[in-house]
Specification:
Strand content: under 5%
Mean pLDDT: 89
Order of helices and strands: HHHHHHHHHHHHHHHHHHHHHHHH
Structural class: mainly alpha
Helix content: 55-70%
Largest sheet: none
Shape: elongated
Number of helices: 24
């Protein structure tokens, strides 16, 4: 499974956990490290530092800190469970089971031991067995927070929104200061395409843990703009070696037209993982913005080689072909991009625009017929259809589509469309078909996608 931090993968698990450990008000990694050095015999300080190191992806030092906390607490179940978080964060089932066996040796039927085994099964994508363990945890005595939180994650991974909500709300009631259940709700709402609810949930999580990189990444993608870029930069500062975080930063910098910064972030992602397809695609988009068509094509083809069904990379490659004047290849690639991602109208819009520019109104109409079946009120498509009708001498059809465009959605030049309608009434031959110029390359690779129901951070 691909696990970009940007896509909020299951591997980044349990980082804010129970919320019971008392941490310094300053939760930066440096402050937590200083607190741990200053209080070597304080288990809470060691635990807080260990959790922060998990967030940073520094698992070796995290284990050292959390083992120190476990020694201070004489191998308590809670301290052993903290160690298990490292395996959960790495999505390593075998390591997770080994970590859980340490709890089993202390108290096999304790609620936290069952929760640990449930988490291991979630890493292994065995939700049925995870639920068995969670039901056993619920029946056992012990603090309910971890059980409710794990139930929420398990139901979320099953796309059971109602049950997951109930479990997360119960966890919030158990530990109001913990960020984890709020982050879980954010993942749940993203998967359910409830963006406003997701934003509110991630904001609540961030109030409780301002440094959580996955929360900052998710929230940054949702809010966008300069605020989103700042959040993503903060996430990368916490976890600089993560290629997914660097890709997210590159996309945000590209959206802000900061080409050099975007290129640097995509390069950093590829240094960490040379097979990271979104980073290759991102470098292709940077090169396209710079007019470096050969470099753009090479990077985009590499991205498509790694992920053949990447609609965004295919769409960008079509723009390279169009920029070169290879309209036949461009039309074919635009059509292929539309087949890969029917929800994005840009491919068929661009194919129709090129066809109209070649005086192939029938072909353009065929593309637009397909597009309007999927997006019947898309203003730019209706304008192009009006142009196609006008090119074929169908003044009534052209006027009808222009008028529909004025009342439809989408980014159109309303004054220009009204001018075409007026020209239809005044000119004997109707308006001259207008083919808009190719759209300026968008400075971002893709809009943030909701997490799939079976993926996402297990918090």
């Amino acid at each position: 499974m691909s696990r970009p931090c940007a896509l909020l993968s299951l591997s980044f698990a349990l980082l804010t956990g129970s919320g019971h450990a008392q941490t310094p008000q300053d939760t930066s990694l440096e402050a937590l490290a200083e607190a741990a050095r200053a209080r070597p015999g304080n288990a809470d300080a060691q635990t807080a530092y260990g959790r922060a190191l998990i967030q940073a992806g520094d698992y070796t030092r995290a284990e050292r800190a959390l083992r120190g906390a476990s020694r201070i607490r004489r191998g308590s179940l809670e301290s052993l469970y903290e160690l298990a978080r490292i395996a959960f964060a790495q999505n390593d089932y075998r390591s997770a089971r080994r970590a859980c066996r340490a709890l089993e040796r202390e108290e096999r039927n304790a609620a936290l031991t069952h929760v640990c085994r449930a988490r291991a099964f979630l890493v292994w994508n065995r939700s049925g067995r995870a639920f068995e363990e969670l039901e056993a945890a619920q029946a056992a005595s012990g603090p309910p927070f971890e059980t409710h939180l794990a139930f929420g994650d398990a139901y979320r991974l099953r796309a059971d929104v109602e049950q997951a909500e109930q479990a997360y709300q119960a966890a919030i009631a158990d530990s109001p200061t913990s960020a984890a259940p709020h982050a879980g709700l954010g993942m749940l709402y993203l998967a359910a395409r409830r963006t406003n609810d997701a934003r509110a949930a991630f904001q609540a999580a961030r109030q409780r843990d301002p440094e959580d990189p996955e929360v900052n990444l998710a929230l940054g993608r949702i809010v966008g703009g300069s605020e989103g870029l700042q959040l993503i930069e903060r996430a990368v500062a916490r976890r600089p070696s993560d290629p997914g975080a660097q890709v997210a930063l590159g996309e945000a910098q590209l959206a802000a037209s900061n080409l050099d910064a975007a290129d640097a972030a995509f390069s950093a992602a590829l240094e960490a993982d040379s097979r990271r397809a979104p980073a290759h695609a991102g470098k292709g988009l940077v090169a396209l913005e710079r007019g470096e068509l050969d470099a753009a094509e090479a990077s985009l083809r590499r991205a498509i080689e790694l992920v053949p069904n990447d609609a965004a990379a295919v769409l960008a490659l079509a723009r390279v072909s169009e920029a070169r004047g290879d309209t036949r290849e461009a039309i074919e690639s635009y059509r292929h991009a539309s087949d890969l991602d029917p929800s994005n109208p840009q491919g068929l819009l661009s194919a129709a625009r090129i066809a109209l520019g070649q005086n192939r109104a029938v072909l353009a109409s065929a593309f637009l017929d397909r597009l309007l079946q999927r997006h019947p009120n898309l203003g730019p498509a209706l304008v192009l259809y009006g142009d196609a009708r006008a090119a074929q001498g169908d003044r009534a059809g052209a006027r009808r589509h222009y008028e529909r465009a004025l009342s439809a959605g989408g980014d159109i030049d309303r004054a220009d469309v009204q001018g075409r309608i007026d020209a239809l009434a005044g000119a004997p031959g109707g308006p001259r078909p207008h083919t808009p110029p190719p759209p300026r390359p968008r400075a971002g690779r893709r809009a943030p996608r909701p997490a799939q129901a079976g993926a996402g951070r297990a918090v």
